[in-house]
Each structure stands twice: as C-alpha cells, then as structure tokens.
Specification:
2 domains; homodimer; Rossmann fold; 7 strands; alpha/beta
C-alpha cells in the first residue's frame, strides 16, 4: 500500500504518542518532530507507511537510549494473553467451527497496538471480536489454499497478540514458520517475545532481519527473503504487514482489524471492521 | 498562547484540508507538506500557532498562484449571513437581554472557520449557540469595562462571521475600529470582505497590516500597533486571535467557540464550548 497524504500528520501524532508513553520531555519530543519534519521530503508517496515508521521508531529508540522502550508494556500484554489462553482453548474446542473461532481470536489480538492506542482491554476486545462479522471474508479461499499447502509462513505483528497467533497455529496444525522483527520496534513481536508467548512449542521462529513496523521486504535479510520467496501460503497479521505486502503477487491472507482512516479507505471498509482478505499469486 | 506539540500534526492536517478545498493535486500537496516539514525546526514552541499558520497559508497562496483562494467560499458565507441578518436583528430586539443575545450571535458566527471545517450550516449553528451556556462567562466584567470606555477595538476573524460582528457592534453602540487582515489568509476577513459585510456603516475598518491567521503583533504594521497600544477596550474574535493575544496585558475580551483539543486544554473547557473570557491590563 502506498503512503497517503493523511499518513503524514499521523506519523507526527504517532511520534508524540510514543514520546508520551516513554516519558520523553516536551523539548526532546519537539527535537524528534523537527527531525521527522526534515525526513518528509525524502519519503515519496510510493513508499509504504512502515518504511517511514521504521525511521520514526528508530529515532525514538536513539532518543531514549533504550533498545526496547516498550519492553514492560509488551511483557504485561503477553502475561495477560497467557492468562486468557486456557479459557480461549476451551472456547475453541467447544465451538461449532473451531478454525473460524481461532481466526477471530487471532484478529482480536491485533487490537493490542501501541501505534494506535495503549488502552486496550484484551478480554473485552476478544468478546467483541468473536461476535463481530467480517467486512471482508475470504475464508473459503483460505481453506482451499490451506488444504493444498504443506507449510505456513506466519508473519507476526504485536507482542501479546503473539499468544493468540499461537492458538491459531495450533488449530492450523501444519509446519509453521513464525516471523518476528529483528530488533524491537514499537510493541512488535521479537524473537524473545515469541519465546515468552510459547510460540517455540508450535512453530520455528525466524527473524525477518528487519526493524520496520511491517514486513518491508527491502529491509529484510537475504536469509529471510529466501524463505519468503519459497513460501506458498502466507498469513500476515495486522496493519503494518498489510501496508508492506498488499501489492505482492503471492498467496497471502491478511488478518487484521482496520484501525485508521487510511487503511479503511484502501480496503473500502469502516474503522473497527475485521478483515480476512486473501490475495494470490496468479 | 504557546504552540503545543499537538499543533504540529494539526498544521499538516490543515495544509492537506486546504489543498483539498482548493483542488491542489496530490503531488503538489506532498511538495507543500515537504516544505512544511523543513520549517518545523525553525518554529520554537514559544511561538504562537498563528505564526506558523501564516507561513503555511502563505505557501498555499504561492502554490495556487491565487492571492485569494477562498474568495468564492467567503462570498457565499457573507451572502448567507446577510440573508439571516433581518431575522437576527428582530430576534435581538425582542430578547430579554439584547446585548447578551448579540454576543452569542457574534460567537455563533465563529463557527464559519475553514481551518477547522468547511461544512457548517450557519443557521443551525446560530440556533444551537443561542441556547448554549458559556463555559467561561465574564459578562459582568465586560459590562463594567464597556461602560468606562469611549471607543472599542474589535478584532475580526472570519468572513461571514463579520456580518454577525456588525450586529454586535450595532448593539454596543460606541465608536468602533474593526480590524481586518492585510491580505487574504484562509477565510479570514479582509477589508473588502468587511465592506461586503456592511461593516463600513458601523465601524472604521482598519487593516492590522498582518497576513497571519491571528493578530500576531510582530507581523502588524506600525500604524496599526499605535492604534492597538492606545486602545483601552478590545474585543477579539476566534481561536487564531486568542492564540496570538492570550498572554497580552491589556483589557481584551475573547469571544470564541473552542474547536480544537489544544485550545480546550489551554482554557480548561470542552470541544464545542462557547467562551467569553476577559483578561485585563492590571
């Protein structure tokens, strides 16, 4: 997905929000915005939003001098999601369509997103999402491709959400590579977060090699790109990965909650809608 | 009022909104945002918001090659306000407190503000405002200072609103200098707009010499600054003038509708509240 004009004020809002969460003072935050301002003209609209996001959150890391400024928040969310894990497993086992329920659970986890909002009650969000209808639903197509694949490439998004990804991977029950960010960016899931979420028990955890808040391929490692190129069936979680991959020609199923006006316009849906959209290689 | 961090993303949003209204294409708008980005680091938070607003809207003027890009919209609003004029005069003459009603009418006119929103039904806004309670109401203080002044300096804000200013000036019934912007900026009232609004019949119309969307004194002419310094009783309309003058040490009464989160925080009120706030020379 290209960057829309409306993304530009939003980058500044995200930087201010991140600075608030991390207790960065007003003058330092202003300096961050000054630096962002200087970058705008180096960022054509043809770039995807996570490409600039990568630069913003890199600058925030530099400014705090903390390589993982959201660590405590991520650990809190993973802990809360793990607390809910047994009940969700029980719920899925009793449901009429366990795979569909597990997909909705994985999407509910996508509400844990600090780029958009820090106040999210995971349990509330879960109950709401389970009752919600999809605005885009390519479940039939998903099941067809799933039946014909040996292996799944699953691109993670946020920490905490990762526990719900584990639940979906358990339900899919196929060899899975779970992709994490190379280093911490916002609250996105890293190798350690994936381990803490229990993903090591159900998937091979692999770093994309990238520090962007979305799978921006040109920032990924060659090792990862080989895996990506060979994969025939991809599940991509969240907005950032959608923004980075929506123009690819591969079998990708995007699971996300539409949270911003730009995504909403791109997908022709409403804010808060849940999306299960497939694109394919043909 | 100082510039808050939250004003910075809003400057970009305002530029995008203005570009949309003026049918500036996406690439040219991006170029405008690029240029804005380069200015952020030259704008300390100690500046008032209209100081940067002045630069933004100057750039928009340059980009369109049109010295008065909002001309048609301004004329439409003046025409609509003039259509309502006889009924409003009738309403005021029948009201229990004609001065208070005229003040509310003048504030209702402040809803005509293209920096914030272009969709405003003036008549609806008027009816709503007349029923509304003030969040800050210094009417008692206002009447005291009014009784003790010979002359009024009245700082206009938007075109269209200017017709409602005329109604308040008629009600105040004292020699009045009505201050307009030197050249068009957004839909702010200029000399010609004031003439078209009928203000020539009730006030001496004077240019501030400034092209900022708020009375930024350092951008005003020496001629105007002499008038300002000698004035003992000032009425200031709207957000932009409030932002520029709120730290002055003079008898100023601010009439405005609080439209943005930053003003709301500065005044400790809610979005949509109507404000009648006096500051004074002592």
């Amino acid at each position: 997905m290209k960057t829309y004009l409306d993304c530009i004020p939003c980058f500044f809002k995200q930087a201010i929000r991140a600075a608030k969460i991390l207790n960065i003072d007003e003058l330092k935050t202003k300096k961050l915005l000054d630096e962002l301002g200087l970058l705008i003209n180096q960022m054509p609209l043809e770039s995807t939003p996570p490409e600039l996001g990568r630069i913003i959150y890199g600058k925030i890391r530099d400014l705090t001098g903390n390589p993982d400024p959201y660590k405590n928040l991520k650990q809190k969310d993973i802990k809360e999601a793990l607390r809910l894990y047994p009940n969700i497993k029980e719920l899925i086992s009793r449901s009429v369509d366990p795979l569909m329920t597990a997909i909705k659970v994985a999407i509910a986890g996508n509400s844990i997103d600090f780029a958009i909002d820090t106040d999210c009650d995971i349990e509330d969000e879960l109950n709401k999402t389970l009752k919600q209808q999809f605005a885009i639903n390519n479940f039939g197509q998903f099941k067809y491709y799933l039946n014909n694949t040996y292996e799944i490439l699953y691109i993670g998004d946020n920490a905490g959400e990762s526990v719900f990804d584990k639940i979906l991977i358990e339900q899919l029950n196929k060899p899975t590579i779970y992709v994490v960010r190379e280093i911490p960016v916002i609250n996105d899931v890293t190798y350690q977060d994936a381990i803490d979420s229990g993903l090591g028990d159900v998937a091979t955890i692999v770093s994309s090699g990238s520090d962007a808040p979305g799978l921006v391929l040109k920032t990924c490692s060659n090792e990862f790109l080989k895996i990506y190129e060979n994969s025939k069936f991809i599940i991509s979680k969240g907005q950032g990965n959608y923004e980075a991959l929506s123009d690819e020609k591969k079998n990708i199923f995007f699971l996300l909650k539409a949270k911003c006006p730009v995504i909403v316009r791109d997908l022709d849906v409403s804010v808060g809608d849940i999306i299960f959209k497939g694109i394919n290689a043909e």
